[in-house]
Amino acid sequence: MLIRETTDDELLGVRRVLNAGALRVPAGLTEATTIIALANSPPILGALVLEGPTITAIAVRPRRRGQGIGTALVEAAAERRVRLVVQFDPSVRPFWAGLGFTIQPAVGDTRQRLRGVRA
Asked: Which mean pLDDT values do the consecutive 10-residue runs of the chain (119 residues) have?
């Protein structure tokens, strides 16, 4: 599996992966902020979007979940940033805790989301 930053012509594929995960696609999605996971060639298996230290979206194709792709994307983001921050639903807490994120309630979030920080 290849993990790398996306190219401009792959952004449509990134949008498809994020949409399949029922995630809001960030308006400012660019190749500079997006890391993708590929097999040896397309399609894109997963994508992670960074805005500064914040992971604003992460998704893996449904049929490819549970294969370490999400973990690989987060580790690739950690290589690019000293500190990572993410907000997420409680149902995925084990994923983020397993990656070494310190977890606490997200302040001011009315949806009961959690906030994770990894430094």
From this structure: 85 84 67 71 86 92 92 95 95 97 89 93
